[in-house]
Write a structure and sequence with these properties.
Distance between the termini: 34 Å
Number of strands: 32
Strand order of the largest sheet: 1-32-31-30
Oligomer: single chain
Structural class: mainly beta
Shape: globular
Number of helices: 1
Radius of gyration: 21 Å
Length: 364
């Protein structure tokens, strides 16, 4: 009798869930929504204090979220249009690329205070830390250069000319080289950090390369070519293109899944995610998600891949064993960025409801 009642209850709950769409199949749901400043577009987890940092583009601030109770504890004023965030494990500082100020702000994270603004090139949009030399690399889109910051003194020690419109950076620890995606010239620049940060090569890829991802098991670098609908695969042993994989329209973001060595590609113009087999650089699957997927995140706690669909106001959850959508979570805001917090195993989603306000949704 009891088992029959439990079965009936289970069926009723499944009917209720299905009436609200495909949600929470994996138990994921929005457990908290945290207001921040205007137009948050980048998130960063700080392992030294378990806080989440949020770059608010239209407020010129970085919000600091304490993740035990998921509360906003501070807004730190930085430069104009903060675009990128970087954690430096050498000194536990947070670095902020301020596009419209041409500066990088340095935040000390014990008290979350601004300690310095470093002048770099025009329109800094991306940041990269090199653990081999403790340098910070800054991609300056308008200057067509990479500024190198010595993170001990927090001063610029070098400016390296690269291709046109550098928009993405990636580090290869196996050869101590820095890779730069140049959107305007359709190339990837290679900087040798072991040789005084010298530019050693320009690799021709597809049209408008805008995202890079390095895969340690095969030492390949993956390049999303937005206007070609392809992903170029660079063999970093000789820095040549080994493969070009056709995906779908406007591949925008890449994510490596270390659990299965697959590479996930968010195709903004096709509402799909392409899955590339890392062992042979072939297309495995194409998964339909929400409208305009722009953000990807691998969750190591469940090996699933989360997809931020900016027009659908949703996060799709991909089962990476089957490469199917296992659940969809409505976040009621444009999901512009995703970040994982290993201390509470939650996924943080940066978005805006009106295009002005800022909301951080917490999925768990």
């Amino acid at each position: 009798m009891l088992s029959s009642l439990l079965m009936c209850l289970f069926i009723v709950l499944m009917i209720i869930a299905s009436s609200h769409g495909v949600k929470n199949v994996l138990g994921d749901s929005v457990v908290s929504v945290i207001p921040v400043d205007n137009f948050p577009q980048t998130l960063l987890f700080n392992p030294s204090n378990n806080n989440i940092y949020v770059a608010n583009r239209d407020s010129g601030t970085v919000s600091v979220i304490e993740t035990v109770n998921n509360t906003l504890i501070k807004n730190v004023t930085v430069g104009l249009s903060p675009q990128a965030l970087l954690f430096n494990p050498y000194n536990n500082n947070i670095y902020v690329a301020n596009r419209d100020s041409g500066t990088v702000s340095v935040i000390e994270t014990v008290n979350n205070t601004l300690i310095k603004n470093v002048t770099v090139g025009s329109f800094p949009e991306q940041l990269l830390f090199n653990p081999s030399n403790n340098n910070i690399y800054v991609a300056n889109v308008i200057s067509n250069s990479i500024s190198v910051i010595d993170s001990i003194a927090n001063v610029v020690t070098n400016d390296i000319e690269v291709g046109t419109d550098p928009v993405a950076l990636e580090f290869n620890p196996s050869n101590n080289q820095i890779y730069v995606a140049n959107e305007g010239s359709g190339t990837v620049s290679v900087i040798d950090a072991s040789n005084n940060n010298t530019l050693i090569k320009e690799i021709k890829v597809g049209d408008s390369p805008i995202s890079l991802e390095f895969n340690p098991p095969n030492n390949y670098l993956y390049v999303a070519n937005r206007d070609s609908g392809t992903v170029s695969v660079i063999d970093t042993g000789n820095n040549t293109v080994a493969h070009n994989v056709e995906v779908e329209n406007e591949p925008t973001t890449l994510e490596v899944n270390p659990a299965n060595n697959d590479i996930y590609v968010a195709n903004r113009g096709s509402r799909t995610v392409s899955v590339i087999d890392g062992s042979n650089s072939t297309l495995l699957d194409t998964v339909i998600v929400g409208s305009e997927p722009v953000a990807l995140l691998f969750n190591p706690s469940n090996t699933n891949v989360y997809v931020g669909n900016v027009v659908s106001n949703s996060v799709s959850i991909l089962d990476s064993e089957k490469n199917t959508v296992a659940g969809t979570v409505d976040v009621n805001s444009l999901p512009l960025a995703l970040e994982f917090n290993p201390s509470n195993k939650a996924v943080y989603v940066a978005g805006t409801l009106t295009g002005v306000d800022g909301l951080i949704s917490v999925i768990k």
